[in-house]
Amino acid sequence: GAGVSQTPSNKVTEKGKYVELRCDPISGHTALYWYRQSLGQGPEFLIYFQGTGAADDSGLPNDRFFAVRPEGSVSTLKIQRTERGDSAVYLCASSSNTGSSEAFFGQGTRLTVV
Amino acid sequence: GNSVTQMEGPVTLSEEAFLTINCTYTATGYPSLFWYVQYPGEGLQLLLKATKADDKGSNKGFEATYRKETTSFHLEKGSVQVSDSAVYFCALSDNAGGTSYGKLTFGQGTILTVHP
Question: Which of these, A31, A59, A63, lies nearest to A44 by C-alpha position?
Answer without folding.
Answer: A59
